[in-house]
Fold:
Amino acid sequence: MKHSQHHALQFQAVGAAAADRQRLDALTQEMEALAQRDPEAYRRRVSKAAALGSAYMVAMVVVIVAGLAGLGWLLVEAEVWSLIALIGSTGLFLLLVLRSLWLGGAQPGGHPIRADEAPELFALIDDLRRQLDLPPFRRVLIDDYFNAGVVPLGGFGVPGWQDNYLYIGLPLLKCLSRVQLKAVLAHEMGHLVRSKGNLLEHRIYRQRVRWERLMAAMEASQNVGAMLVMPFLRRYVPYFDALSFPLAKASEYEADRASVRMTSPTVTAEALTVGLVGGLFVAERYWPDLFKRAADEPEPPAGPFRTMGSALAAAWGTDAVQVMLREALGREMPVGDTHPPLAERLKAIGVDPKLAPPAPGETADALLGPALEVVTSEMDTLWKKLYQQRWAALHAEAQAARQQAADLDARVAAGETLSVAEALRRAELTAARDAAITQFRAICAASPDNAKASLGLATRLLEGDDESGCALAEQAMRLDPELSLEACLLLRDYYWRQGNVALAREWEHRTATRADVEQRASNERATVSLSDHFERNDLPPEALAALVAQLKAVPGLHHAYLVKKRVEVLAQRSCYILGVEVTRWYHLPSRTRVPAVLAAIQKQVNLPQHTLVMPVDGDNYRFGRKFYWMKGARIM
Structure:
């Protein structure tokens, strides 16, 4: 299987191990129980942890400044000129720390909008801002996400020093009414409101943001100072997040109360419900259905954002949206998600759920006025540019699959007996549900232990709400754990459609658990460092020979090493490292040589699944040296 990406060498944390994750989840649940049982004791504990973090931040800055002063004195008084490089490195580290504590970072993306372009939108924003006693926003941006939010930048998180950026997603504007948008914006602005009753929550919110940005900056840095502080950050930041989770969750309820004050309980409930269900529709129906059109259409559609509003309007009364409403109301958030479940949020404001989509022509995108056409056209153009190649690839794959299906059907019609793999592929490519079920049943009868056939049959049965598919989906998981996530999603969606909340939640939990495992496995395989343990590759001789033959055809490739990285998560799923040497001793320096070879490998070579490709010369020469001395590592 051709791997779709080549991963550059990265030095970053792979993430908490399974035991650490379980410990942090347990701490989160313990803190929630303590916050309910003894709020004052909980607040004291969080305050102490926050004070410890603040003390560490101050001490870190003081030590760096003192170190710089000492090095500067040695440089001036003792004329130790060799210290210049060390002073420069230390100064860069100080700037990195201060920039992170300043709540610096990239400004949120999107189309900047001005008051003269969308006066009605700004009138709404300014009215909310004045009522909540907030300063003007530095910039208002319209982006392509189904979301809205406020991003504070600068000022070390001190109120009055920072610049606030407001971003609003165009898809969200097409989903809500004007008054519902007001409720959403009031919620987001509510996170910035400081009152006598929420000072601790506000301080903890700012500190969580600071730690998050400091951690990200240190992980991305190659500075020696960053490597020295990372052990503390890797232990403290996840601990502080788990400890302060109840306060972060409480800030969501506080923001909901701000929304209620600015609108009404009913409008806030409508905004929460319509926003969540609309988001599910766009993510699970609109975009997937759009990309299905690639099978028949060689070119991507010209205006996906332009047609999104009409698609939402047509969907509100359908059975699919009612299923999504049940899912939204029954869904429980995973441990660590600070957003409470919809049912709990509605209960907190004392209103029953109500799906009240905007009337035709009353969606909030009209608040953009003449700018709506400009923003929509810009996003449609950018979307088409970004997805042009992917769309073409999907179209080519669909055409090839149809030809393959036709060839297999012709062979069967001619009386030929297909292999199990060919019969399975034919069933997967068969569009007609009943015909596909017949084919899958035949495969399952001939090969009862074929996990893919069991899952394929389960999928087609459950598409028609045939309960007999449930046992087959579970059987597929037992036969092949690699199919677990797909099977869990299948069962979760089936039980949501049936309105069986208990079983839907059970499979929702199992889906989240498996997705977490898959994510940790992906993270572990996305990086490589000299401290990793490597083993001899275990590819079958014929597969290895085919790989070597393809690598020999890559222009500019000098040597190649293939090793197996030892992993902990899903250890049965191999992770290979393909190290390539490109530069020879007589080559002049070149910035294009290595990227050209890596691009050629990506295009020409069928790599084993879960293979990372990296150069092992130049700056990565230590990997080359390590692989050189490994028996069996060099394959070319």
The two ends are 20 Å apart (CA to CA). The CA atoms of residues 250 and 314 lie 36 Å apart.
